[in-house]
């Protein structure tokens, strides 16, 4: 890697009076035990392109990175190449999972400095990675548990619009060709962008992290749910949804609540070394039925709902839609049932959603596939049915 003044230092991202104005989810970084193998899992099952790599062959001596892309989703899989790399200890403690939710900003250094001024704790001091084509500046602060938020700003050939078009992610990365990429281009899964990311924290800590996002990141509460909203006979949890100033980025925060048995949040924590972390990524699609059908064909394991769910869902959903002057659910009802998709409605419209089972052997990280038809909520009407389905899986694992 060279570190010289780039030929072009122009940045098309407009400056803002607020250095913490977030422009996009730049990428979500997973620490994984074997990035090469994990890349093919996510490519084969979820239709991601294995777009770029940085490894020993490209000059990266400490870690191997695989960039997965689909729509405006960018997932970075990182594997340590030596025991001194911080990911080595984290993978031992937590298994594969999310380390970094990175945000594109106009100026990463200024965003970092403002976050520190607001009370944030440094994780990575600003560093600039440059070559003769441009630069990428990265800095990061700590958030709940193992997670960090990186701020990323780009110049020259590495600006985000170029990256979205397939340009190189940053110096040392090279593009990758693979038969799986050609296959996925011909058989798309239709995933467009990250709708929201959900974090699990310890009991009694939700409000602490709500205030942290308000004070440090300038987020505001978008919605909240208590144990009366999210409970079953056996378990309960509470959740508050935090959103960036433009509502572009939403991050719900969950904590367990007292119940007869163990909640899914507590199960996550116990299998995550009692450390808070990202529980799931919700990935948006414009066509829930097509996306879920293709993902099921590829072998994705989704949660299973009882047929009785569909005996009552249509009356509930259509009543809400009619009362608020919205169109009825236009997707084929029988096909929704065949695919096991959940449906919910609020005063703004309806949504379709479905949750995978855990993506690895530890019952921690999973994905949600979501399509919105006006509704900006999170499926409150599905909470009871969803959590009962989760409890059945917990019972199968011996963790309820």
Describe the structure.
This protein is α+β, with helices and mostly antiparallel strands and 400 residues long. It has 2 domains: 24-185, Roll (2,3-Dihydroxybiphenyl 1,2-Dioxygenase, domain 1), CATH 3.10.180.10; 191-397, Roll (2,3-Dihydroxybiphenyl 1,2-Dioxygenase, domain 1), CATH 3.10.180. It contains 11 helices and 17 strands. It has helices at residues 35-46, 86-94, 108-117, 160-164, 179-186, 206-217, 264-270, 288-297, 308-323, 333-339, 383-397; strands at 24-31, 49-54, 63-70, 73-80, 97-104, 122-131, 134-142, 148-156, 174-175, 191-200, 220-225, 236-243, 250-257, 277-285, 342-346, 349-355, 366-373. It has a 9-stranded mixed beta sheet. It has an 8-stranded mixed beta sheet with strand order 11-12-13-10-14-17-16-15. The longest helix has 16 residues, at 308-323.
Coarse structural class: alpha+beta
How many structurally independent domains? Answer: 2
Note the run of SSEs as H and E: EHEEEHEHEEEHEHEHEEEHEHHHEEEH
Mean pLDDT, nearest integer? 91
Unreliable runs, pLDDT <50, ≥5 residues?
A: 1-12
The CATH architecture assignment of the largest domain turns out to be Roll
Q: How many DSSP helices? A: 11
Sheet with most strands: 9 strands, mixed
The CATH superfamily of the largest domain is known as 2,3-Dihydroxybiphenyl 1,2-Dioxygenase, domain 1
Indicate the radius of gyration in whole angstroms. 21 Å
Termini gap: 50 Å
The tally of beta strands, per DSSP, is 17
The fraction of residues assigned to DSSP E strands is: 25-35%
Helix content: 25-40%
The strands making up the biggest β-sheet line up spatially as: 6-7-8-5-1-4-3-2-9
CATH fold-level assignment of the largest domain: 2,3-Dihydroxybiphenyl 1,2-Dioxygenase, domain 1
CATH C-level label of the largest domain: Alpha Beta
Shape call: globular
């Amino acid at each position: 890697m060279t570190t010289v003044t780039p030929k072009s230092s122009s940045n098309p991202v407009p400056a803002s009076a607020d250095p913490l104005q977030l422009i996009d989810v730049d990428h979500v970084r997973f620490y994984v035990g074997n990035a090469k193998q994990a890349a093919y899992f996510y490519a084969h099952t979820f239709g991601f392109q294995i777009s770029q790599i940085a490894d020993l062959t490209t000059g990266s001596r400490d870690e191997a990175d695989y960039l997965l892309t689909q729509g405006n989703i960018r997932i970075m899989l990182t594997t340590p190449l030596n025991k001194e790399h911080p990911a080595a200890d984290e993978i031992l403690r937590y298994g594969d999972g999310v380390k970094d939710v990175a945000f594109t900003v106009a100026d990463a250094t200024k965003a970092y400095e403002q976050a520190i001024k607001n009370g944030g704790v440094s994780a990575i001091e600003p560093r600039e990675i440059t070559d003769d084509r441009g630069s990428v500046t990265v800095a990061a602060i700590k958030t709940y548990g193992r997670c960090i938020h990186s701020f990323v700003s780009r110049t020259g050939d590495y600006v985000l619009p170029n990256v979205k078009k397939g340009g190189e992610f940053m110096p040392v990365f090279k593009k990758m060709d693979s038969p799986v990429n050609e296959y996925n281009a011909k058989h798309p899964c239709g995933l467009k962008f990250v709708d929201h990311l959900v974090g699990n924290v310890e009991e009694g800590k939700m409000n602490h992290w709500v205030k942290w996002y308000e004070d440090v990141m300038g987020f505001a509460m978008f919605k909240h749910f208590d144990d009366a909203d999210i409970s079953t006979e056996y378990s309960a949890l509470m959740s508050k949804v935090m959103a960036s100033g433009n509502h572009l980025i939403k991050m719900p925060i969950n904590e367990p609540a007292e119940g007869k048995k163990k909640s899914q949040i507590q199960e996550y924590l116990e299998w995550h070394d009692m450390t808070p972390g990202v529980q799931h990524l919700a990935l948006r699609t414009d066509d829930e039925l097509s996306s879920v059908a293709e993902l099921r064909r590829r072998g994705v394991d989704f949660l299973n709902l009882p047929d009785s769910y569909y005996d009552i869902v249509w009356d509930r959903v259509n009543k809400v839609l009619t009362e608020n002057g919205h169109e009825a659910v236009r997707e084929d009802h029988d096909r929704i049932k065949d695919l096991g998709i959940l449906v919910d409605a609020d005063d703004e419209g309806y949504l379709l959603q479905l949750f995978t089972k855990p993506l690895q052997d530890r019952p921690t990280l999973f994905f949600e596939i979501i399509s919105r038809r006006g509704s900006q909520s999170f499926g409150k009407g599905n909470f009871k049915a969803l959590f009962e389905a989760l409890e059945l899986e917990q019972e199968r694992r011996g963790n309820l």
